[in-house]
Amino acid sequence: MKFLRNFIFPKQTRTKNMAKPETIEEYYASRPFLSARGAGDNIAHFNIFRIGDPDIEDVPVQFGRKNFFKICIISGNSLIHYADRTFEVREHGILFANPQIPYNWEPLSSKQQGFSCIFNEAFFEHFGRIKEYPVFKPGGFPVYELTEGELSAIKGIFEQIMVEKNSEFTFKEDAIRTLVLQLIHNAIKIRPAIITSPEKVSAASRITSLFLELLERQFPLDSTSSEVQLRTPADFANQMAVHVNHLNKSVKEITNKTTTGIIMQRLLQEAKIMLKHTSWPISDIAYALGFEGPTHFSTFIKRQLQVSPSQYRNA
């Protein structure tokens, strides 16, 4: 397995309207040919489908966040637009999508085959820590290219999930959870993250985890009236009731990055998403991300990307 190449593609491949995250109920409402039994954002839900099934219509996936997780394998040339990156699947690929990151899938060839499963966080309540896996972490690589052998092994797990989903086994949901975790574990073993082994929990790791959670909670920004409230290490330290020096030391120890650097990188990622996938005025984006004004925002973007916000938007 290897990372797929990621590109910047022409603007016509993207959408300019980024609505609120799609719910599971809205997902099924746009696909009335699918069974939505037991669907609901506050109800534990899981479903699996075959991509390329003649009985299932091909509905375009709009770019945006979804209120559910998705894992799918794809055979066939396609593009996956994920946050501010675009990945090309040439032959076989696997996608891990989470509710925090906007994405969509754009088929390039007429023949697309594979499997797709969707589930919400409630489905894994008290059963593993689904959000802690590297494949679902913001900033990671969610799309990988698969060899024929890797495709065969992972496809076999999807087939087992399909069998369990259609069975009358009393504990089939537990069996499905186990298989989904097996799917994730197999992918991580094929392409290990920098840190995949459990580490001894320390005060520094707990503080860093809370910091990262507070940072992610501020996104997405769904309207121009939304605004990032925590932008500096001191803001986070005050919220967490710790000294800012203690926060900075803990974050550096665990991530080998500065607190400010992590905050700025996350703001940059959100800025790139908003510039490419919304029609918001640049001044509104600047204020929503907590900048003092468009000038400060423009300086930040130029320093990071070597182009102005408008040049990046129109590239």
Automatic annotation (TrEMBL):
SUPFAM superfamilies: Homeodomain-like. This is AraC family transcriptional regulator. GO terms for molecular function: DNA-binding transcription factor activity; sequence-specific DNA binding. InterPro entries: Homeodomain-like_sf, HTH_AraC. Pfam families: HTH_18 (PF12833). Keywords: DNA-binding, Transcription, Transcription regulation. The keyword Transcription applies. Residues 205-315 form the HTH araC/xylS-type domain. It comes from Chitinophaga silvisoli.
